[in-house]
Amino acid sequence: MMGMKVMLVLYLMILPLTLAQLKVGFYSDSCPQAESIVQAAVLKRFSSDKSITAALLRMHFHDCFVRGCDASILIDSTSQNQSEKVAGPNLTVRGYELIDEAKKTLESVCASKVSCADIITLATRDAVVLSGGPSYAVPTGRRDGRVSNPSEVNLPGPSLPVSQAFQTFMNKNMTMDDMVTLLGAHTVGVAHCNFFSDRISGRGDRRMDPALLAKLKGICGAASGSNPNPTAFLDQGTSFTVDNEFFRQIRLKRGVMKIDQELANDRLSRGFVSRFASNSTLFRTRFAQAMVKMGNIEVLVGNAGEIRKNCRVINAK
Description:
Layout: H1 2-20, E1 23-24, H2 34-46, H3 52-67, H4 96-109, H5 116-130, E2 139-140, H6 162-170, H7 176-183, E3 190-192, H8 197-200, H9 210-221, E4 231-233, H10 245-251, H11 258-265, H12 270-278, H13 280-294
Antiparallel strand pairs: 1-2, 3-4
């Protein structure tokens, strides 16, 4: 009898942990249309704005690398509390209205079932696929955080050396392979001139391809009152396609931001860059794996957090 009690206690201890894990098809019973609703919202936006893929990739990364993938980046500031949105690295994050649109539809179909954190993750995957990237199954079941603090936003900057940038990834249990793979998302990104102005001032960085240097000087030199901080594509080849072209570009000294170019130069990362540049299938496979791994960072599951009714506002207690 005593043995049965011990077994029952162990079962009850293990059961919540088992139920709390992320899994593919988490909403198959509670909201069967969840993934198709998010997909429809992404497709609608993508049809008129292909740059949304880069925006969602950035939003997803900036969310997961602060408090974990808990949609804390979506919370608006109030008169009492400033949120992550006002932190310097997040001032140019965009795509919030797409998340709002998907959430509004989901709330009308299955209220308080689908988390904002899962919407970000699913939407990013769908945008990657639309941009020619790999399709991959997204484990869901994340819950939304109730804290958003700008002082906690400590993301790797564009001028950091590889070793320092890697420290941020290691803190999230990510490998160097993961970091190089995820920075491959720059294949569809842009950067404002202020993020690389030091590389093009004066005679410019001698490690940069002269043709690219001249091009960037022209873009940034055209800054005006209406556009004081222009942008340049990070991938000069296939700027709207999720592929391995970014890695080919940086091997040709055509990295725009310092961290991008350093990936191809640093002994810690250049081997991964070389392999991805020469093997598109390898990059697609690793990108899908790394995105799933990133999406699992410090997630809230089970009874932790909440399911926000409005992604911009913490639920009233």
